[in-house]
Amino acid sequence: MQQRRSLDQAYTNRKLLNGQLDTPKWWAPTVIVLGILVLIGIGVISVMINKGLGVTGLSRPVFWGLFITTFVFWVGISHAGIMISAILRLTQAEWRRPVTRAAELLTVFSLLTALVFPLIHAGRPWRIAYWIMPYDFGRGIYPNIRSPLIMDPVAIGTYLTGSTLFLYVALLPDLANLRDRTKGWRNSLYTVLALGWRGNPRQWKMQTVGGILLSALMLPIFVSVHSIVSWDFAVVPAVEGWHSTIFAPYFVIGAVHSGVSAVVTMMALMRWLWKWDDFIRPEHFDALARLLIVVATGWLGFTFLELIFALYGQDAPEIALREMQMFTWPWNMLFIIFFLTAYLIPVPMWLFKRVRTNIALMFWTSILVNIGMWLERFLIIVPGLARRTPFVYTWDSYRPSAVEWTIFIWSFAWVTFLMLLFSKFFPLVPLFEQKESQVFTDDVMIGRAKVPAVLREAD
Amino acid sequence: MSTRSMLGLFQQPEPAADAMDGLKEAGFELGSFDVLTGVPYPEGAFGEYVPQHRLFRFPAFGAIIGFTLAVFLTSVTQLAYPVVTGGKPILSLFAMLIIMYEMTMLSAVIASVFGIIFESRLPNMKPGIYDPRITEGWIGVVITFDDDSRVADAEGVFNRAGAVEIKHAS
Predict the structure, then answer these.
(1) Which CATH number does the domain housing residue A223 bear?
(2) Cβ distance of B103 and A158 shorter than 8 Å
(3) CB A423 within 8 A of CB A19
(4) Could you report how far apart the first and last alpha carbons of chain B are, in Å?
(5) Could you tell me which of A114, A38, A67 has the C-alpha nearest to residue A401?
(6) Are the CB atoms for B115 and A166 separated by under 8 Å?
């Protein structure tokens, strides 16, 4: 934490509320372009619902393709929020301060986006109610509570509700700050949302204790969600490559790898777009990259473990699948790209401090990771289904259609659109956390060196 | 006799702590004055009354409610509408546990958030005397009293401690 400099609270307000109190010049054109992309995506989704899943590349035997891959990808990205926010809060890591809000936000918006994919993948989304909602007594049956189709919405619904509430509670002091700096209808909006926050010791104590309590409650939920998503696959013993016993932790650690990388991407964009060089500093990227090295290497271990399990069992169909994934065109090309982008290029680069503190390099390497992690999910889901198996009388290789690619691109535009919309009304960096770090900071003389130190209460 | 509020504004924590001490020495009741800040200062930094809370009861209560609802949803509904799927038992513990776990946690989180808001004494639609400069780093010491004759005492304490500004409300 050598790069800290003293910032007064009025300056912190002015800089971190620049998205809400002034509108940056790039904001409106970007939102308009993204809005158009979002509308195109919604149009394509509507056409698909009207025409049916025939407009996609899905066909026997590959019925889970780009949509389910992208669903798993966005659920993975959503794991950044709680991983960063809760763990760093519980461990009182100082470098969490500018990161937490963006990470929590990414959780909420990526979960909202992830939920769209199984819904549209169903073809007739309104009928999904018959699977997950406890009604439809008219047919004399009740949803089968034992189905993963129930587990998934319950887990993701819990995570989404919890994350949204977590985000709101941590926003309260900043909403009061915005209330104090605005006039007119915006003032009325923030007055209502801030619930009458004044900043007395009782409210601050609840903010601190409540933050830790919610972090502790959200952590087991975060682990459970991607475990349950992995069980969507793991409970299907008929498909090779889907039923490994390590799927739950493998999915969780992969999600953390892609999620934390997405936070790096977002932090770099926030620093460039809102010019928050004083708040999002190279030391934060350094810390995130160190964390990523550990997570990515753990994930690599699980990837090898999965392959070793397949080879050690000498199960012919399982080995045939791995051969297909790694040595058969075009899967082998995807496998090489996946392996290079998810690990072999970024992680060795992060071993060097000059890379970890270079924001442009961190931005591009984090994007590489997510290209790789998306491909990883694709390679888990599709080859297992596409492989020729006995008793399947028809098969075809899967090629995603233009409709699927458009909806895939829509999901990125949608998440960015929501983020930018949020940034117009609410701060992306928690102001009170940032100011708290200034209050608790002092310079300490050690020998002849003046060292910035962070003071902390004993308990 | 009417209820009056007074807010002393300070630019540094030390004079605000002096004002809090001064109010105590002047005989004002402990619960009648409070300190308002834009950042969470360490507990007791202003010699203020340290609030007690019962926040940890909320998630426990929420978890019990959530678990009960989950048991009902996963067992009673399946027994009421028994559908045998793939020869599996109607009450399949593994699948039930997942739903029970998630619903228990969800309910605990919702109850905790409710607890945080309740224990923060929010929502407070009549928050009383306040100054927006508090969220810019100023520190407010707010006092409420019924006895008009004590206005001068409180003002004296604020001035001696070095208040930059004193605001009144009734």
Answers:
(1) 1.20.1630.10
(2) yes
(3) yes
(4) 11
(5) A67
(6) no
**Does residue A294 lie in a domain region?**
yes
**Domain encompassing residue A216:** 9-454
Cβ within 8 Å, pair A154-B34? no
Sheet of B165-169, strand order: B33-36, B139-145, B4-10, B165-169
What ranges in A57-181 are assigned the alpha helix state H? 66-90, 100-121, 129-132, 148-181
* B-proximal residues of A, 376-395, CB under 8 Å: none
User: Using a CB-CB distance cutoff of 8 angstroms, which residues of chain A are in contact with residue B56?
Assistant: 213
pLDDT per position as a tens digit, A318-376: 888 888 889 988 899 999 999 999 999 999 999 999 999 999 999 999 999 999 999 99
Q: Tokens 């009902």 — which residue?
A: B72
Instruction: Give the whole-angstrom CA distance, residue B61 versus residue B104.
Output: 10
Residues of A within 8 A of B85 (CB-CB) are: 144, 146-147
A423 part of a folded domain: yes
Total structural domains within chain A: 1
Q: List C-alpha distances in Å: A227 to A75, A76, A312, B130, B134.
A: 11, 11, 24, 48, 45
In which residue are the tokens 């949608």 written? A414
- Map out the domains of chain B as residue ranges: 4-53+128-169, 57-119
Cβ distance of B137 and A9 shorter than 8 Å: yes
pTM summary value: 0.90
Interval B62-87: pLDDT, tens: 999 999 999 998 888 788 777 777 78
- Residue A1 is assigned to a structural domain of this protein: no
Q: How many Cβ pairs within 8 Å bridge chains A and B?
A: 189
**How far apart, in whole angstroms, are the C-alpha atoms of residue A284 and residue A263?**
11
Interchain pair B109, A217: CB under 8 A? yes
Render A113-145 in DSSP notation, one character per residue. HHHHHHHHHTSSGGGGHHHHSS--GGGT----T
Q: How far is A176 from A187, CA to CA, in rounded Å?
A: 10
Joined tokens for residue A396:
């075809």
Tokens of A325: 């994934």
Q: Is A169:A160 a contact under the CB 8 Å cutoff?
A: no
- Spell out which residues of chain A touch residue B99, defining contact as CB-CB under 8 Å: 145, 150-151, 154
* Closest CA relative to residue B138, chosen from B95, B167, B118: B167
ipTM score of the complex?
0.93
Q: How far apart are CA B72 and CA B66, in angstroms?
A: 10
Closest approach of chain B CAs to the CA of A322, in angstroms?
Answer: 30
* A382, A64 Cβ separation under 8 angstroms: yes
| Mutation choice for A interface testing from B5, B35, B77, B102 by most A CBs within 10 A | B102
Residue A1 clears pLDDT 50, i.e. is over it: no
- CATH number of B4-53+128-169: 3.40.50.300, 3.40.50.12160, 3.30.70.2750, 3.90.180.10? 3.30.70.2750
- Beta strand B33-36 with B139-145: parallel, antiparallel or unpaired? antiparallel
- Distance, CA of B6 to CA of A404 (rounded, Å): 63
Domain contains A2: no
CA-nearest of A88, A106, A94 to A264 is: A106
**A212–B contact, CB cutoff 8 A:** no
